[in-house]
Structures are given as C-alpha cells and as structure tokens.
Amino acid sequence: MSRRAFLAAVAGAAASASMRGAHASAVDERQIKVAPGEVRLNGAGGPSTAVWTYNGTVPGPALRLRQGQPVRVAVENGLDEDTTVHWHGIRLPNAMDGVPGLTQTPIRPGESFSYEFAPPDAGTFWYHPHADSLVQIGRGLAGPLIVEEAEPVAFDGDLLWLLQDWRLTKDGQIAGGFGSMMDASMSGRVGNLVTVNGQAQPDQSVRAGERVRLRLANASLARMMALRFEGHRPVVLAIDGQPCDPHEPEDGRLVLAPAMRIDIALDMQGDPGSRHDVIDDFYDGLAYRLTTLVYDNASPIRPHPLSAPLALPRNPLPELDFANAVHQEIVLQGGMMGGGKLKGAGGMMGMTMPGMNGGAAWAINGMSMTGDGHAGMAPQFMLERGATCLLTMRNETAWWHPMHVHGFSLSVLSRNGEPVPHRQWQDTVLLAPKDTVDCAFVADNPGDWMLHCHVADHQMAGLMTVFRVK
C-alpha cells in the first residue's frame, strides 16, 4: 500500500469511528401508548378478547436498543387508572425504575412520562407496569426489550418468544377474581391459556442446518415453566440478559419462572419437513404443547453444525470484593402450609386465612409490604455505595418464589450449600420450597430499590421489601 493510500485508509477509519461515536451518543426516541384494545389469542377464528395493550398490540412492541446508547421513551397513559413502566433487568438510574411512590409519581390517566436511560448491558429484558401490576400484567401489559451487542453476534436467526399466561372464561374473556385469597396464599394466578408472542400454540418455521439464537421471556403472573425441545439440544447462553458459560440444561429442561429470561442456541438438526414439539411439563400431570418447530422442505443450509464458539461477550458488571463484603439475609415466610411470623400484618397468623380481604399472606424477615410500592417504605437494610453485598435468601415457605432485585444483577454463588456453576448472573432468582441461595452484587447504584417475589399475587400480598444504597 502506498503512503497516500495508507493515510486515506486511516482517515476513513477515523471518520467511520467518529460517525459511530456520534450515532452512539444520539438519543433514541420512542413512544408507547398504554390503552385498552382487543386481540384474538386463539387465532383469526377464535374469540376477540378485551385486553390492555402497549401501542395496540399484545405483547407490546419489541424495543430493540443499542448497548450504551441513550434512549428516551415517552409513555402516554390511555387507561382509566394510574400506571408506570418498569424496565425489568436494566441497570438504570433509580428515578427511571418505574415504582410508583418509591421512584416516581405514577402516570395519571391522560398524562405522559418520559423515561431516559442508557442500557449498559446487552441482552434480553422486558418491560411491564409496576402499578396495579397484578391486574395490568394479567390484562396483557408486557413487552420485550432487546439490547443489541456493540458488535454483532453470529447466528443465522435471532428469535424471540415472549410467553404470557391468561386466565380466560369460556367465552374467551379475561376472568375476574384478581387477588383472590387462594391465589394470594398459594401458587398465584396460574391461567388456562399460554401464548407465544400473543398467539396460542403457534408453529415456528425453521430450516435444517441453521443455528438460531432464541430469546425466551416468561411474562406470566405466576406460571412456572419447564420447556423441553423434542429432538433438539438447547445450549444456554445467557440468563436474565447476562451471558454465562454455555451449557446444556440439566435433564434438557429449561426452567423459566415468571420474569426470567433465557437465551439459548439451537442447532436445527431435524430433517427437512419434520415437526418437533416444544413441551412445558413443569406441573406434574399438566404437560402441554407450547409450540412446534416446523422444518421447511428445503435442503439443509450446511451439512454439519457450526463449530464457531457459542459464548456471548460479557457485560461490564462491577468486580466483586469478597474480602470486604457485607452480609445481609432475607427470609421468606408465610403462605398456606408455610406458617411464619407476619409482624407487619399483626403477628402470628391465627384463625384467619392468610391473604383474606386483601391482607398480607407473606412476609420478609417478619415484615409484610403489600401492593406495588409507595412513598415512605422503610428499607430492610442499607448499603454504602460501592460495597459488595453477600445476600442470602432463605425460603421457609412451601411455595416457589422468583425473587427479583431492581437496579442490579446478582452473581448466584450457591444453592443449598452447593456451588452454582456456569458463572451465572441473574436479576430474578428462583427459590424452590425450603431453598437457600447465596448471591453477591456491588451496590454501585444509589437509591431505594425494590426486592420482591415476581409471582404478582405474592408481591401484592406482602412478599416485597426495599433496600437502600446511599
């Protein structure tokens, strides 16, 4: 290369980098309107169901953002009640977290609020209301949020399945009875219809030989899922938006609690023209077909699976300092068959049923915070900014609880004393009955932050607390 050509190439690269920098710093403007609508969850021939929507669709529009690029999302409330938007899993400023009373004044009917943040992490996230969340999520308000890596990751396809669970009447309408005593004190409002991107049991078209990235997000109120891909071997790439060491799930089942996301790689090794069901069999005796992978009749796009490494680039999470860590513990109590003190609800549960008349059914460290969040909630514990916190979560109840922390990702260290492999970071950690899980995070994000069960009935009935980073 001549000196002139070399200098021209350098100048061109510099200009390109400058343009990329300018693009990265520009604010990405988005608009979302929350309003009633109608959808046909069972396809064109099924009944029309009255729902609540983001921009007229269920689920809401997939927001694809760029890692590190500022975004401004103007949310207009077209409902007859207050709402907010929580950007689930995004490590953002406290004032943008969407918890009514705690981090913002709720968006009143007919009013708007603009959320502004720059997502630091690439990965799969989602958005949903945090006001009257049991009803609003149960009526359809949920949408996927994808933060794309700074450098493209090599896959033949990038698929997204946002999974929602609906409790419908015989005529296809959303059933009433939100917040019933039985749901509040047991497994929550599990429905009778599951949709993938707003459709029940859709087919997923695939082609032999391709490698796809499949993003799974459970936006249900309460339904736990355990997905089996018949004839395929999924490889877990990321959990809750955070890359992990690629691995095949235990027993081939992907356990996905409400609010959790799992990114997997799927090498499509079925025969052209073949069909392979995806089964959810979490609940004993209640397995059902979620969807079907349908291969087209074309020849495979390659004779053998790709040999390229599957690991995704890690996100810029802060370094843990175990030598100077502080320890905090939260204990989950209550529920039917669970017992335990409910100090904030008047002491030991006596002759009344837990969760009766909208009261508390659950407690964390003996205290019950009910509802969606409000001003003046006293923090369970406080952390100095920059401190590493070792957090132990102990489930003394007889029920499953996906515990979600706002504003942070947790390094999951051990479960019942056994080390957790694959270097997993999560914002929603599933605790089975009687589980004890040890996690760690760096308290680098100041503010009052919510920590709660993402079974919405459990949160509303007391399984919620707040901690403060100062």
Automatic annotation (TrEMBL):
InterPro entries: Cu-oxidase-like_N, Cu-oxidase_2nd, Cu-oxidase_C, Cu-oxidase_fam, Cu_oxidase_CS, Cu_oxidase_Cu_BS, Cupredoxin, TAT_signal. PANTHER family: MULTI-COPPER OXIDASE, MULTICOPPER OXIDASE LPR1. Residues 42-150, 186-273, 377-470 form the Plastocyanin-like domain. This is Multicopper oxidase family protein. The keyword Oxidoreductase applies. Residues 1-24 form the signal peptide. Keywords: Metal-binding, Oxidoreductase, Signal. The lineage of its organism: Bacteria, Pseudomonadati, Pseudomonadota, Alphaproteobacteria, Hyphomicrobiales. Gene3D superfamilies: Cupredoxins - blue copper proteins. One of its GO terms (cellular component) is outer membrane-bounded periplasmic space. GO terms for molecular function: copper ion binding; oxidoreductase activity. CDD domains: CuRO_1_CumA_like, CuRO_2_CumA_like.
